[in-house]
Design a protein that fits this description.
With 326 residues, this protein is an alpha/beta fold. It is built from eleven helices and ten strands.
Length: 326
């Protein structure tokens, strides 16, 4: 067994300084004209994510409401939920998205795993309601051991079971189905599959879609060339409907188009490039949406730099100068 790496004082300090609350000084950057933010840490209490988003100049953000890789959920106190709502109102941060945990697979063919997933997703819904989140983002899961159609139907039934008695129709919460990178047994690897699942879910609860740019690219859609971008957006509108895409995960990709490999890169630094994000942020059909990065934080300020890059791509329309009267 190899010995654990011993970090130097400098390395430990650099790692700790990834938290914006440690390195930020002075007034935070001003929010832009679009709803732009990033997935934000809840270290120190879930409500601290709102403080971090504000310090980064974000006016929207995403969190995990519990550990994404453990079945055991975090318990949220009413004081934490009240503090989160208060900070969001104070800073004008909306909407807030919660990303469901990675273990949840509502299409699982293993009975015990499926039961755990339904229970875990029930907890995600309950915490999202307590925190007054607008969106709960869900990866549809893997249908291995079933047909794709059976997997899609089971996800819809599972969400209905998890939501039983919660009266989601009376809340402000909407479940968003996220497209995936298109691996062999994943659900949601195409716009058609996401649209199919939304069709199943509409009678169950308020739903919409979350489209991830990295997933879109590596699943095979062309969003890099101008002609490919327009073709992809047309396909998206014809299947899911652009009006139903409430959140865009703005992630560049480390890998090539069609690779099926879900590895995120800093905005503009990967195989997608800046032009696709510029088109996305300035498309009038996406004005209603929130744009949230899930980019890596390798060095202090990486989160700020990705937010600022997205903001810089928004073209602010200016009114034409008035002609002087003769």
């Amino acid at each position: 067994m190899s010995k654990p790496k011993i970090l130097s004082v400098h390395e430990r300090k650099r790692l700790s300084m990834k938290d914006v609350l440690l390195w930020a000084e002075g007034e935070p950057p001003k929010p832009g004209s679009r709803r732009i933010g990033i997935h934000t840490s809840t270290a120190g209490g879930v409500e601290m994510a709102a403080e971090r988003a504000y310090r980064l100049g974000a006016n929207t953000f995403q969190i995990f409401s519990s550990s994404p890789r453990q079945w055991q959920p975090y318990s949220l106190s009413s004081a934490q939920c009240d503090a989160m709502r208060g900070l969001r109102e104070k800073y004008g941060i909306s909407p807030m998205a919660i990303h469901s945990g990675y273990l949840v697979n509502l299409a699982s063919a293993t009975l015990e795993f499926h039961r755990k997933s339904v229970k875990a997703f029930r907890g995600e819904l309950e915490r999202a309601l307590a925190l007054c989140a607008e969106f709960l983002v869900l990866h549809p899961g893997s249908f291995r051991g079933r047909s794709r159609e059976e997997g899609l139907e089971l996800v819809a039934h599972s969400i209905a079971e998890a939501a039983e008695g919660l009266e989601l129709e009376k809340s402000n919460l909407r479940v968003l189905i996220e497209n995936t990178a298109g691996s062999e047994f994943s659900l949601g690897g195409s716009f058609d599959q996401v649209a199919h699942l939304l069709h199943y879910l509409r009678p169950v609860c308020p739903v919409g879609a979350c489209i991830d740019t990295c997933h879109t690219h590596v699943s095979g859609y062309d969003i890099v060339s101008e002609s490919g971008w327009h073709e992809t957006m047309q396909k998206l509108d014809e299947t899911i409907g652009l009006k139903n895409v409430m959140v865009w995960h703005c992630n560049d990709a480390k890998d090539a188009r069609g690779s099926k490999r879900d590895r995120h890169e800093h905005v503009g630094k990967g195989t997608i490039g800046l032009d696709a994000f510029r088109r996305l942020l300035n498309d009038p059909r996406t004005e209603h949406a929130a744009f949230i990065a899930e980019t890596p934080i390798e060095d202090p300020g990486d989160d700020l730099r990705n937010i600022e890059t997205l903001k810089s791509l928004v073209q602010v329309a200016t009114a034409p100068a008035k002609r002087k009267r003769a």
